[in-house]
Write a structure and sequence with these properties.
0% strand, 1 helix, mainly alpha
Length: 29
């Protein structure tokens, strides 16, 4: 159970980071 929660949190964090990077890239241009 804990491993599943950790994996989900890690995946979510990666998605958030990717979205933030995308927004930052859009602002740079």
């Amino acid at each position: 159970m804990t491993a599943v929660v950790t994996a989900a949190a890690s995946l979510h964090a990666a998605a958030v980071a990717r979205d933030a990077a995308k927004k930052r890239g859009a602002m740079m241009r």
